[in-house]
Amino acid sequence: MPEATLYPLANYTFGVKEAQPEEDPSVHARLKRLQNDFEEHGMRRSVEAVLVVHEHNHPHVLMLQIANAFFKLPGHYIDPGMTEEEGLKVILNERLGPEDGVGDMEWEIGECLSTWWRPSFEQYMYPYVPAHITKPTERKRLFVVHLPPHKVLTVPRNMKLLAVPLFELYDNAARYGPQLSAIPHLLSRYDFNYEK
Amino acid sequence: MPEATLYPLANYTFGVKEAQPEEDPSVHARLKRLQNDFEEHGMRRSVEAVLVVHEHNHPHVLMLQIANAFFKLPGHYIDPGMTEEEGLKVILNERLGPEDGVGDMEWEIGECLSTWWRPSFEQYMYPYVPAHITKPTERKRLFVVHLPPHKVLTVPRNMKLLAVPLFELYDNAARYGPQLSAIPHLLSRYDFNYEK
């Protein structure tokens, strides 16, 4: 059984930094950019971080909430030529590192938890390559990122960073969507050590 | 990324053997037995096997269908004192091994895919220990079991062994329940090699 050590939410310090507005103004614009990038570079590779803390020995996942509405994991697509691990470190520094954008790149990237495939230039993704799809347009991977006992996380002003308990995510695709609501299943094979 | 090699469904030969009736005649009787066993031995440990094959390069999970109605993975609770791996081999031999019950015990038990916890003597299970539960009554673990290129699987007469595609399981808790419908998520981190 893989092990993971979790520290209390109260061990982490949260700062605020300049807003990081959405890259694309609409879903349509986002899918259009995907299509343009696909023509130039082929399949897009995206990565997302599952950062886990605990409160009273129950695991909580750190999630960004945008505009008091939808939730997402810290993540982004990565540059062609970067490994997923390098890319995720760059993204975590940008999203949760200090204001100056330099950061220490000291993120301990753990195992892949799941892979999602986008078969076309539509919104839907699946945790497998659908039948008859030979050229998926995007592959997204979720990685466990092991947090140290203490860390400062600096959050863009237009986002909130929330610790969402597994019992809130579980069986709650209505609120969190199919990807985030599956995180409790994906983490269930870990043996968690709850530290102080 | 962990790898797994899948062979076509047509590589496997299916036999029939004597029926293996349900141990308990009702849900009530099953939960009553759980309670009796718990008082004697403490938390029950159960194990289930996720056996994966492919058809046209799409993964399919082998599932038992009982009485033309509900689906389950090959599995059972194990004796106290047995490891989960030993226990699963014994169960697979009994459920899918040859009629004489001897079998070769040659089952390659892979990684744990998920863990489910039963907090009380009720039907519900969760992929985490619910808050304030200090003594769960049952822990069930799903393991990938790697199949060889060819094998004879002998199925009790009162069950059918079906190969259910991931696209059928996905997002289909209505038909398969919360545990089986999550298998596509759990398998998505594997890099599958589709062999002939």
From TrEMBL, chains A, B:
Species this protein is from: Umbelopsis vinacea
GO biological process, one term: mRNA 3'-end processing
Molecular function in Gene Ontology: mRNA binding
Main location: nucleus
Descriptive protein name: Cleavage and polyadenylation specificity factor subunit 5
Lineage: Eukaryota, Fungi, Fungi incertae sedis, Mucoromycota, Mucoromycotina
Subunit architecture: Homodimer (via N- and C-terminus); binds RNA as homodimer. Component of the cleavage factor Im (CFIm) complex.
Subcellular location as annotated: Nucleus; Cytoplasm
CDD domains: NUDIX_Cfim25_Nudt21 (cd18871)
Any one Gene Ontology cellular component term annotated for this protein: mRNA cleavage factor complex
Function: Component of the cleavage factor Im (CFIm) complex that functions as an activator of the pre-mRNA 3'-end cleavage and polyadenylation processing required for the maturation of pre-mRNA into functional mRNAs. CFIm contributes to the recruitment of multiprotein complexes on specific sequences on the pre-mRNA 3'-end, so called cleavage and polyadenylation signals (pA signals). Most pre-mRNAs contain multiple pA signals, resulting in alternative cleavage and polyadenylation (APA) producing mRNAs with variable 3'-end formation.
InterPro entries the record matches: Cleav_polyA_spec_factor_su5
Source organism, top-level taxon: Eukaryota
Assigned protein family: Belongs to the Nudix hydrolase family. CPSF5 subfamily.
Keywords assigned by UniProt, alphabetized: Cytoplasm, mRNA processing, Nucleus, RNA-binding
